[in-house]
């Protein structure tokens, strides 16, 4: 070993190798030392940012969205508004100032009416174009408790119709945008913001009491049909007062905006679908709505179809912000949602204060439905006798409500043959086999096997001819009617089959 060591310095190559090893060891130790020092410094910095117990830190101040507050996010004005609103809600605000701000409402509604308004609790579901204007008007008029329910955020396209949003609010939940702006106007107002989608399963929770006070009124400003129907059905069944806004999209004529019973609403796809779904649940009237009677026409805005290239990408449903949520673009003139929202708020204010007002009369067509039902009963009895059955005591599984539903919602109050809207009747579309005509399973009871999807709407004269030639004769509808009538019947009956799932 000693001889090897003594020979090592004489070898130039060996010296180079040893120098390289030594240099590598030194470099490695320097790197490791630097990394250790850096880790220690980083840990020290992290520790320095952790506040002591009881020490306030910016990270402890969370916004209402659940995120850490940005120290530079609030302007001085925002900070003053928040501080003032907090004090005002705690009662530290001069009552005379409030009454002075509400002076015009006070002299219009009287002291008693204004007191009712100020003590009311209103829930607004849907805080977009319609809902934001409704909330703004209710707040400025003196409503003291407002629960806002909406899952959506402000977008750039919201700004053409939203009452309160600004560019700075893009990306902010709509409920908090509204609260923040209106606190600067009426700081004494209490807001309960629920940044979530309304659904049937959440109805009891979202429409619950607030500090022991039941909601005095609910505003429906939803444009999602499932949520809309769920809200209206729940309120109707629970006896909660509610007013609903129908569709403001594609509308432009302010002289055709009305407040009336839902049974009177017309010329609006959202209204028709809502009314039809509710009627399938046995709710045909008793809900006030804001709607437009404006008809579409050439040159007017229409619901835009989804571009073909979007269909090619795959499932169209994936394009929605939520499952089954609309993905097509609805043209909206920014002024119309404001009118609908203000009409909704106006109605709520009049209702809460007891100020005199009248609804538009509903269609009041119950007598007509009774006549159509009686004629259908006679038609079924004649058909039974024609097939060789005893027709005395025959019952049909159709009610007056069913008649109204078929005439108004399925066939739009018109004959499928000529489009006439007078002297209407319901009649079977096709002649049934004798075995499918009468149910005789129960002794002493005879009932027709008639289904709603067996019936079409015609005038009485057309129904008489149809019964003679199709139901009792040998003709098929295809031999009697032109292709357009056949297409319309198939379309209406297929539509009704799709709606059967909502019948309860």
TrEMBL record:
Residue ranges of domain THIF-type NAD/FAD binding fold in the record: 104-359
InterPro entries on file: ThiF/MoeB/HesA (IPR045886), ThiF_NAD_FAD-bd (IPR000594), Ubiquitin-activating_enz (IPR035985)
Name of the protein described by the UniProt record: THIF-type NAD/FAD binding fold domain-containing protein
Species name: Phyllosticta citribraziliensis
């Amino acid at each position: 070993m000693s001889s090897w060591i003594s020979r090592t310095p004489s070898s130039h190559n060996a010296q180079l190798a040893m120098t390289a090893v030594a240099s590598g060891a030194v470099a490695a130790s320097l790197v490791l030392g630097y990394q250790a020092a850096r880790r220690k410094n980083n840990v020290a910095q992290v520790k320095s940012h952790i506040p002591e117990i009881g020490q306030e830190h910016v990270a402890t101040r969370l916004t209402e969205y659940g995120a850490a507050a940005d120290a530079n996010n609030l302007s001085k004005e925002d900070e003053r508004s928040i501080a003032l609103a907090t004090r005002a809600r705690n009662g530290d605000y001069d009552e005379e100032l409030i009454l002075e701000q509400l002076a015009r409402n006070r002299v219009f509604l009287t002291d008693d009416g204004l007191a009712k308004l100020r003590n009311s609790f209103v829930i607004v579901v849907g805080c977009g174009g319609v809902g934001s204007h409704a909330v703004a008007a209710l707040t400025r008029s003196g409503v003291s408790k407002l629960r806002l329910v909406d899952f959506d955020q402000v977008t750039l396209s919201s700004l053409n119709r939203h009452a309160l949003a600004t560019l700075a609010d893009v990306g902010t939940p709509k409920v908090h945008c509204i609260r923040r702006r209106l606190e600067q106007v009426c700081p004494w107002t209490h807001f309960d913001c629920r940044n979530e989608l309304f659904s049937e399963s959440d109805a009891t929770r979202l429409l619950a009491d607030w500090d022991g006070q039941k909601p005095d009124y609910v505003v429906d400003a939803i444009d999602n049909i499932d949520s809309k129907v769920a809200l209206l059905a729940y309120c109707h069944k629970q006896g909660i007062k509610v007013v609903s806004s129908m569709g403001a999209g594609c509308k432009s004529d302010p002289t055709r905006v009305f407040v009336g019973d839902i049974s009177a609403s017309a010329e609006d796809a959202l209204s028709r679908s809502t009314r039809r779904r509710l009627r399938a649940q046995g709710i045909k009237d008793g809900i006030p709505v804001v709607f437009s009677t404006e008809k579409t026409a050439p040159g007017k805005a229409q619901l835009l179809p989804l571009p073909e290239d979007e269909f090619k990408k795959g499932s169209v449903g994936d394009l929605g912000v939520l499952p089954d949520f609309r993905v097509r673009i609805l043209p909206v003139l920014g002024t119309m949602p404001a009118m609908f929202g203000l009409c909704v708020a106006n109605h709520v204010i009049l209702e809460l204060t007891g100020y005199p007002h009248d609804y538009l009369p509903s269609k009041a067509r119950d007598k007509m439905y009774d006549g159509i039902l009686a004629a259908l009963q006679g038609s079924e009895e004649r058909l039974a006798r024609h097939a060789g059955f005893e027709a005395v005591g025959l019952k049909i599984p159709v009610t007056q409500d069913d008649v109204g539903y078929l005439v108004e919602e399925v066939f739009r109050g018109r004959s499928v043959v000529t489009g006439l809207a007078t002297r209407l009747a319901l009649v079977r579309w096709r002649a049934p086999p004798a075995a499918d005509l009468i149910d005789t399973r129960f002794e002493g009871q005879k009932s027709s096997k008639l289904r709603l999807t067996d019936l079409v709407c015609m005038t009485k004269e057309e129904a008489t001819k149809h019964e003679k030639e199709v139901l009792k004769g040998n003709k098929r509808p295809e031999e009697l009617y032109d292709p357009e009538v056949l297409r319309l019947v198939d379309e209406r009956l297929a539509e009704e089959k799709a709606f059967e799932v909502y019948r309860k």
